[in-house]
Specification:
Oligomer: single chain
Largest sheet: 6 strands, antiparallel
Helix content: 25-40%
Radius of gyration: 24 Å
Number of domains: 3
Structural class: alpha+beta
Length: 365
């Protein structure tokens, strides 16, 4: 494979600024604060809409704590992010997050959130293309708040700055395993699993979040997989009816019924000739490793530890692309993995060339 030469205009660093990093409310501009305020109002509305907590009014707190002497108060905090890519308009998202690191009472609880494997994802696409089914997708909004009811006593202190409509000094009693609690992911999966089985789907042995619909002759009528709260499915009219029932059980933030949509970082496009998977924006977040003119001439010199860290970071991202859809760079990326511990400057140059090639061919898949 022949790669284009390095792009000399993009050697300031190896990673773009992460737009989705946490924002600090008191340090932001008024415009950003307004966006965060709107996102926080929406988040608290979700908590109320899904009846995630009961409010213990300040005057009732002493009596409640006296009655529940073993109850400990766990603090919460706001986590605010801008989820937009650097080239997009701001998309602020806020979460009320429980300080799970300070939570007691959940010792021994399972903390995993079962998800379908990459192999199951690929199998779903293969069967869908073979049977010429329509591919569908959807994400469940505020998924943890739609999980099973919590079975332990969990008392929360509102985040600094308070909550709209909640008087100062009030406490919250959790009814759902809300964000930050140790068992929140599994609490959601347990409800999703129960609903899927109740609608006639059958869990696939060996898979944690994949289900099939079969007819009376055990013929395959549909498949659905889940990656936490992101669902992907296809099937016959019988499967469509089952999924319609599941959609009624949960509140979805988006439902994808078109020919092209995003799923778990991938862009999925279905056409008459099959299904194409691309990841057009992934490489745009990366920058080539900085190499000055003198350093580029030292091709047979070993890399520094800082350069090795940069190389490992970029190769890790490229390897994810290989696993998802970019088999055209598989050999080169795996070669860089093999020489990582004894990498030389020429390997840094090769890494930059691969990265630039991927950035110039974003729609390959």
């Amino acid at each position: 494979m022949e790669f284009p030469a390095e792009d000399r205009d993009h050697q300031e660093g190896y990673l773009l600024k992460d737009q989705s990093k946490e924002l600090h409310y008191h340090k932001e501009t008024d415009a950003v604060k307004q966006g965060i305020d709107n996102a926080r109002l929406k988040e608290w509305g979700n908590w109320q809409g899904f009846e995630a907590v009961d409010i213990i009014l300040p005057e009732d707190v002493p009596a409640y704590l006296k009655e529940h002497k073993d109850a400990e108060i766990t603090p919460t905090r706001w986590v605010d992010n801008n989820k937009a890519q650097p080239w997009e308009d701001p998309r602020y998202k806020s979460r009320i997050v429980v300080r799970g690191d300070l939570e007691t009472g959940a010792e021994g609880a399972r903390t995993d959130s079962p998800t379908a494997s990459s192999m199951m994802f690929n199998l779903l696409l293969s069967i869908t293309a073979n049977k010429r089914w329509r591919l569908r997708g959807g994400d469940i909004t505020a998924s943890f708040l739609q999980g099973d009811v919590i079975t332990r006593t969990l008392i929360l202190r509102p985040p600094p700055g308070g909550l709209p409509g909640v008087p100062e000094g009030a406490l919250l009693r959790a009814r759902k395993p809300v964000y930050g609690t140790k068992d929140a992911p599994r609490g959601f999966w347990k409800r999703l699993h129960r609903v899927a089985l109740s609608k006639g789907l059958r869990a696939i042995p060996g898979e944690h979040a994949a289900y099939v619909l079969q007819d009376k002759h055990h013929g395959l009528q549909g498949i659905v997989i889940a990656h936490v709260d992101d669902l992907l499915w296809s099937g016959s009219e019988a499967m469509d009816k089952v999924m319609d029932e599941i959609i009624k059980e949960f509140k979805f933030g988006a439902l994808e019924f078109g020919d092209k949509f995003d799923y778990c970082g991938r862009t999925v496009e279905q056409g008459k000739d099959g299904i194409t998977i691309t990841v057009p924006n992934n490489a745009a977040k990366l920058r080539p490793i900085h190499l000055g003119a003198e350093r580029r001439r030292q091709k047979d010199h070993y890399v520094t530890e800082q350069e090795r860290a940069q190389l490992r970071s970029i190769v890790g991202s490229l390897n994810w692309l290989v696993r998802v859809c970019r088999v055209d760079i598989a050999y080169e990326v795996h070669r860089l993995q093999a020489v990582m511990q004894k990498a030389m400057v020429e390997d840094l140059i090769m890494c930059n060339q691969i990265l630039n090639y991927v950035k110039k061919t974003p729609n390959k898949g």
